[in-house]
From TrEMBL:
Pfam families: MFS_1. It is found in: Membrane. Gene3D superfamilies: MFS general substrate transporter like domains. This is Major facilitator superfamily MFS_1. SUPFAM superfamilies: MFS general substrate transporter. One of its GO terms (biological process) is nitrate assimilation. The chain crosses the membrane at residues 12-32, 52-72, 79-100, 106-126, 138-157, 163-187, 213-237, 243-262, 274-295, 301-321, 333-352, 364-383. It comes from the Bacteria. PROSITE patterns: MFS (PS50850). It is a multi-pass membrane protein. GO terms for cellular component: membrane.
Amino acid sequence: MIGKEFFKAGHPPTLFAAFFYFDMAFMVWVLLGPLGVQIAGDLGLNAGQKGLMVAIPILAGALLRVVMGVMVDRIKPKLTGVIGQLIVIAGLLVAWSLGISSFGGVLALGVVLGVAGASFAVALPLASRWYPPQYQGVALGIAGAGNSGTVLAALFAPTLAAHFGWINVIGLAAIPVAIALVVYLLLAKDAPNQPAPKSFADYAAVLKLPDAWWFMFFYFVTFGGFSGLASSLTIYFNSEYGLSPVAAGYATAACVFAGSLVRPIGGALADRTGGVRALTIMYCVAAAALTIVSFRLPQMGAALAVFVVAMLALGMGNGAVFQLVPQRFRHEIGVMTGLVGMTGGVGGFYLASSLGYSKQFTGTYQLGLLVFAILAVSALIGLTSIKRRWRTTWGAAGMGVARI
């Protein structure tokens, strides 16, 4: 799947810089999730507030992805990424130095962390524009594997908070982001074939195309499921199975690691078998896993195993969606990355907040999980209804180069 031809076709230093930037940005983007148990304990938050706390960075990141997508097309990916990283570093240091003593303060920090989540709209075009169509799945899978930063947050944030306090963890998080900024400045390079900037009318015109909305919905489910669970599982394992914040963080890290690790595999599999076929399988698996786990399995180990399966399917689905997007919207990849990434983030906000409110108003997480499983089935039905048209229109133009 990845050979010498792949490395010769693009720019490996930029691909690594995009991955590392994305990785550290995602680490801080979901930081409130792993710290959620400790923050909620200190501030006395209820289940609904906990769900909203971890969901706000996802929503802010979703909306800001559109802004970053526009900036990518107008001032190029590298400069856009530098601006975003500087804002995140400043926000972390201000929150650490001033302290946070209220629910409103946590939500304000969540909005700033959303800038880190918007890195998606920078890292993927930065990498994508260096690679030809037949390598889009692998290249964007590698760059997108930066969502493994969520693993680092789940592994280390609760433990560090237990020793130094959660507010100091927020300050410490600025260090790896600053290191990523230095690496990014040294290695990242804008591709020579940058598309000409488009007018805002051109961006609006993309939304008139049904395919744009389909891609947005498909990513709403795959990335929304991944990010929503990544932000919520520490609280879930603590609430449902009584795990300590540190143990719950380790369990969450296992799930997130699985979903992050397979994103490049999902992209490579989609390159080989076609993105539509890969997505079909992944939606089936994700829907089944979310349905099973909604019934609150009696053993924590069993629940962990099913969540891992769900995250594997959702993570591979993320890679498969972005094997298809550059083929359909090669010249609008910046704005489409922003739009598709935005709806993925909205999906994560919806899942994380709905889990919190489901727990608060019904006493269980079942309703939130079941509704998202139904959304996965809806995506499967939609994909089945359009795959023939895709394969006989824009997909046919790429025959022999890239498969849909």
